[in-house]
Amino acid sequence: MTFLTRKRTLALIRHCRLGRIRIYPEIRDPVVRQARISSPRSAITFTLREFASSSRDKQSIPSARESPRDLPTSGYEHIDAGRLVEEEELLDYRADRFYPVHLGEVFRDRYQAIAKLGFGSSSTTWLARDLEARQYVALKVYVRTSLVHRELPSYHHIASRMKDSTHEGRGNVRRLLDSFVANGPDGDHVVLVFEPAQMSLRDMKVVFRPEGFDEDFVRGAIIELLKALDFLHTHGEIVHTGICPVDQSPLERRPHGVGPSGAKEIIAALGPPPVEFLAKTPERRADFWDDEGKWLGLAPIPEARTMEALECRLKDKAGFLSFIRRALTWMPEERATAKELLQDPWLSGRSR
């Protein structure tokens, strides 16, 4: 079988972005004029602003419909058909649940699949070319057994709140462009069409900054994330329950929550949970703690994983740890909101 490796996919995405600039040279000029960006924080803001404005510009440019592209048939890594890869390695994987997307396939006579971007237990995600709008999009193809689709009505709700909002975080929330149903060999699959995301910070670190990001860049990234969360919480009335689920090991994903290994990491970072927290879920407390709130020792607490031990490179370590402790607390009512965190001294540099 032919398979796109992660490295090749990242290279293809970078090529696609360059292609956009060649097709619309007028987009290049603002980037050149703004080349001397003062800080990583302004670089993040500028990138988001330019990406949003270029998308709007492209939608207003009249152009003929593109023809589907002839994708290369060689140069890929070949993997034995008997070897399990990506979603095939999931414990609950069944081939008949997933839509068998083929590179070059055109959905709805409009969206041509170009490369695989990701996968999960309930969907796969693909880079695609919108042949009508002449732009790149991301297709999220759900498994046919998804009975409840909360994401689609949530995006419709967010779109209604974006319409008349001037909140500065609205531009950091990815928009839903379209949705449809794909008829697969074993059933129907809901497909959501999104604006393509930029390279994730994880991939950016692997490709460009293996030694890690500097403190100013981290501040800038957190500020933009918090702006988006504040919009979702205060204007969109949406609660985001997970920013990066890939950090959780498949072995730790259980029907009832976090396993012992995950719990020990949380305890190492936050300290032991207060009695009030354990009282909220007595059935879960019995899995890990005794009646007096003492850890049952199902896994050793790693002293080297405390927040103080983990961070040793920041210039303002005390300010950063204070910020993190406001964001990560056992008791929800003690946790700072996104709006409150945006005013934190560490983010503004006032703690130094």
From TrEMBL:
Enzyme class of the recorded protein, top EC level: transferase
GO annotation (BP), single: regulation of mRNA processing
List of residues binding ATP: 140
GO molecular function: ATP binding; protein serine/threonine kinase activity
GO CC aspect terms: cytoplasm; nucleus
EC number per UniProt: 2.7.11.1
Record-linked InterPro entries: Kinase-like_dom_sf, Prot_kinase_dom, Protein_kinase_ATP_BS, SRPK
Protein's UniProt keywords contain Nucleotide-binding: yes
Keywords: ATP-binding, Kinase, Nucleotide-binding, Serine/threonine-protein kinase, Transferase
Enzymatic reactions: L-seryl-[protein] + ATP = O-phospho-L-seryl-[protein] + ADP + H(+); L-threonyl-[protein] + ATP = O-phospho-L-threonyl-[protein] + ADP + H(+)
Domain Protein kinase span(s) in chain numbering: 111-352
Region (Disordered): 55-75
Protein name (record): non-specific serine/threonine protein kinase
